[in-house]
Amino acid sequence: MTEFERLQEIIAQLRGENGCPWDREQTHVSLKPACVEEAAEVVCGINILEKTGDAENLKEELGDLLLQVVMHAQIAEEENLFTMDDVIRGISEKMIRRHPHVFGTTEVQNSQEVLVNWESIKKREKKGKEWARAYLPEAFDEAKELIDVAKRRKGYV
Description:
Order of helices and strands: HHHHHHHH
Number of helices: 8
GO biological process, one term: response to stress
Distance between the termini: 44 Å
Domain NTP pyrophosphohydrolase MazG-like: 26-103
Strand content: under 5%
Largest sheet: none
Radius of gyration: 19 Å
GO molecular function: nucleoside triphosphate diphosphatase activity
Structural class: mainly alpha
Number of strands: 0
CATH topology of the largest domain: Helix Hairpins
CATH architecture of the largest domain: Orthogonal Bundle
Helix content: over 70%
Low-confidence stretches: none
InterPro entries: MazG-like_dom (IPR004518), NTP-PPase_MazG-like_N (IPR048015), NTP_PyrPHydrolase_MazG (IPR011551)
CATH class of the largest domain: Mainly Alpha
Protein name: MazG family protein
Mean pLDDT: 96
């Protein structure tokens, strides 16, 4: 068993019948504050690494962010929406599609060409799903509000 599989089993047990009441109560919506806060803490870990060379905080915070991903996937599986394998398969296929210069025959001369290709491929993938972008400004505003709440809760404001 991989460490990732072990984590998945731990999360399933925490949300199981004899698991943790708090973990069982969590939903995609209730976990939004923690997800945003953990992403900010990853940024902090990167900053610590950049300024001090110490990677310990980044390692811990990446684990906390991974916990969020695994928890959301577990909840989705319980709701028969999708599985962690679906999430992993989706991102793997996206990376292959969006890197035809690595996994295909497209040639690029520099990273700028990579970005141009990426945006072109992304635009094709999103065709017919443009409506989803309308939700993004609200999500950015909500993320900012959640960060502000986290800052107050931790005594930084």
